[in-house]
Amino acid sequence: ENGCWDNKMAMTPEHLRDLDRRYEELRSRRSAWDSAWKELALHFLPTRCRDASKGDAAAPLLNNTPVDSTGILAMRTLAAGMQGGMTSPARPWFALKMSDDAAEQTPGARMWLDEVLRRMRDIFHRSNFYNAIHTVYGELGTFGTAFMFEFADMKHGFRFVPLTAGEYVLDVDERGRVDTVIRAMRMTARQMVREFGAENVPETVRKALDRPSRSTERRTVMHAVYPRNDRHPRALDGRNKPWASVYWCGGGHSGGGGVPHLLREGGFDGFPGFGPRWDATAEDVYGRSPAMDVLPDCRMLQQMARTTLKAIHKAVDPPMSVAAGLRSVGLDLTAGGLNFVDGMPGQAPQAATPLLQVRPDIQAARVAIQDVQNQIRTGLYNDLFRMLLGSDRRQVTATEVDAREQEKMVLIGPVLERLHDELFIPLIDRTFNLMSDLNMLPPAPPELSGSGVRVEFVSLLAQAQKIVSTGAVSQFVDFVGRTAQAWPEALDAVDIDKVASRYGEYLGVESSIIRSVEEREQLRRERAQARARAAQQEQAAQTVRDMRGAADTARTLSQTPVDPNGVSALEAVIGGMGGL
Question: Which CB contacts under 8 angstroms, 24+ apart, belong to 442-447?
């Protein structure tokens, strides 16, 4: 993990008890969300939402409660759609820019940015980032809150650890940003020894390794990351980093008992995790999700599905009315079964008849169920990620298709902005800082001294927010072009350099493709010089042609007689010029 670790046991048991008490306090604040999360998990993510501090009571592998899986499948589509639309591994989804636009125009800056971008993308592809971020999207869509750690060191490289609802508690700072996380993990004795070292784990854990029956028992390990106030800023050890990172086991509030035992204490230069919320106000610690909005529809859908199944069962296998006299007679009520009985006194010859004549309108029930299913899919933005699948693309032009897609994708704009602020910008910033700490960045050119780097997002969804602006630019350029046919001075209103640069920015074109201002000016100077040379050459050629024409004229005049004495036209002209 990035950060310095120190196993000198600087924290006392009383400090660990304070952390235990804080965990319990934050968990008490979270209790209002726990029941909601459990029901949400039941309808959308059956294998998620667990509380590791309560022991090994794991969630069932199979979800036997729902009879309709629309919510689960719709959430799967939401997570996959966000993965493809925001952080697709198959296409660029972020770019790096300089804070100073002038510095970015230098060739050295552009080459350096492109190399940093290439290395950063390579890190994401080689790590488990894309698997982890897919888990984050599912957590966000279902519970409204997600959390993921980013660790890096020379031994293990970059690794991302997504958490699930129920196994962690959060707290926020004065700006409403997540700055504290305490999680409960379940680890075996072998895992604890490998992670923390045999000399740092309790004696009971070391002894458990010698007893195979107990070596696989899981124990609760707590991990807290929070801002550290009592530190020496000039010290370089882990205990004086801005963010504390403490592992411990035992204690009354962490699933154990007795005196808490410190496993490891360290720290980070920056907060090592990201806690995005789907939707939250300034005072909220945990966020709201789209699954919460469609949960009533999911409940109704389950009830409708159960009622429809009962109706189908009654129609196919209705309850029977059987003569009391046939109680001792075995009847075959299976499909196609034959039963031969004598008529009973005072009863009709048919002794076994259906008790209810159930004729449910299955088609109407299915239509009603389908309406609720579509409402759930729409509430989970499935139509955003399955655009126009129900339309006939052969009857619409490409422009109309693009317009429809852009209009739908803009609907998720507010969520996208929040994720940029709480997840992606901190993610790129932390990754860049970790690369710098691990000496993984190329040497910066001198012209970048004092300039900062900013991130720009070019994913499919991010571009959808910008692509609307390209329509206005295109319309303006087309208008000027048509107007210039009658009034050429209209072209003076267009700064073509700014138009091309801004259009490329809207489309997410990489900076290496667009020439810098200096390169464009150099090309224009070369073209102007080439035109000047061509004009000079043309003028010289015209002079030569004029001289040759004059010589031909003089030759003709010298050979043309104008009187019987043999005087040529040239002599006559010369004589006339002399006053003869």
Answer: 442/112, 442/115, 442/116, 442/119, 444/112, 445/106, 445/108, 445/109, 445/111, 445/112, 446/108, 447/103, 447/106, 447/108, 447/109
